[in-house]
Every structure is written in structure tokens, then in C-alpha cells.
Write a structure and sequence with these properties.
four-stranded mixed β-sheet, alpha+beta, Ribosomal Protein S8, Chain: A, domain 1, 6 helices
């Protein structure tokens, strides 16, 4: 069992003097500069409900805009594709995850997007896991 610490009168006096001279301390949220706060927000593009050609166009415009704004990373939500309709079982699709697999290929095969994108990777669980992609962008020169 730990012994209880009893502060001496000198310790108490030092603490009181210290707290009187601290001055105003801002809450943590106020300590962040506006630029830091803006850079922590990662824009997302949700492609649920769009066809492949519509998705490709939206992805291209989204990446152009993000690169122009100087963003470092964006998230593209493709979905897992497990709810697409099929003949035998409505909960399993024959073309599972069409967008999930075609969006990275679209980015790799598009020369103008290649100049703006440094990497494409699967998102972490909190951002959508297998149903989302992280797109890391190159610096806007």
C-alpha cells in the first residue's frame, strides 16, 4: 500500500504562487491555429448509388479540386458492393465491389490524375475499411 503524500507548507505556498502567475490558459481547441484545424479534416467523396462512368467523373473532379486546394489526403467511399442485385441471392453480387476495384485502376491509368496522386490505399476501419480508399496527393507546385 502506498503511503499518502502530505504537502509541506512550503510546497503549498509554492503551488499557490505558481497558480497565481500562470496567466490565462486557452482551452485546447483554441490553441490550434486555423490552418491546423482545417488540415485535420479529410474530405470524403461517397460514390454509393453512382454508375461506374459517373463515379469516374466524380473522382476525377474531386481529386482535381483537392489537389488545387493543396490537400494532402482525401477519402473515397466506394462501398463493398455486397448489396448489389444478383439472380440467385440478393445479398451477394456476381460483380462484387465493381467501384472498389475499378477506381484505383482508373486513377492509375489516367495520366492527369497520376500527376496529382502519390498513392492509393485501403482505408482504416474508422474511415470505412474495405469500402473506402485513402488517396494521398502530391504537393501542388
Amino acid at each position: 500500500m502506498k503511503k499518502k503524500y502530505f504537502a509541506s507548507s512550503k510546497d503549498k505556498e509554492d503551488w499557490v504562487n505558481f497558480t497565481k502567475n500562470i496567466g490565462h490558459i486557452n482551452p485546447k481547441k483554441e490553441d490550434l491555429s486555423e490552418n491546423e484545424a482545417v488540415n485535420t479534416i479529410v474530405p470524403k467523396l461517397d460514390l454509393h448509388g453512382f454508375s461506374l462512368s459517373e463515379s469516374n467523373e466524380k473522382v476525377k473532379n474531386f481529386i482535381y479540386k483537392a489537389h488545387e486546394l493543396g490537400l494532402k489526403k482525401v477519402i473515397i467511399i466506394t462501398g463493398k458492393g455486397s448489396r448489389s442485385k444478383s439472380y440467385d441471392n440478393p445479398y451477394v453480387s456476381e460483380t462484387l465491389g465493381v467501384l472498389r476495384y475499378s477506381i484505383p485502376d482508373f486513377i492509375r491509368n489516367n495520366v492527369s490524375l497520376n500527376d496529382k496522386v502519390s498513392s492509393v490505399s485501403n482505408a482504416n476501419v474508422e474511415d470505412g475499411a474495405e469500402g473506402a480508399l485513402y488517396i494521398s496527393l502530391k504537393k501542388n507546385l
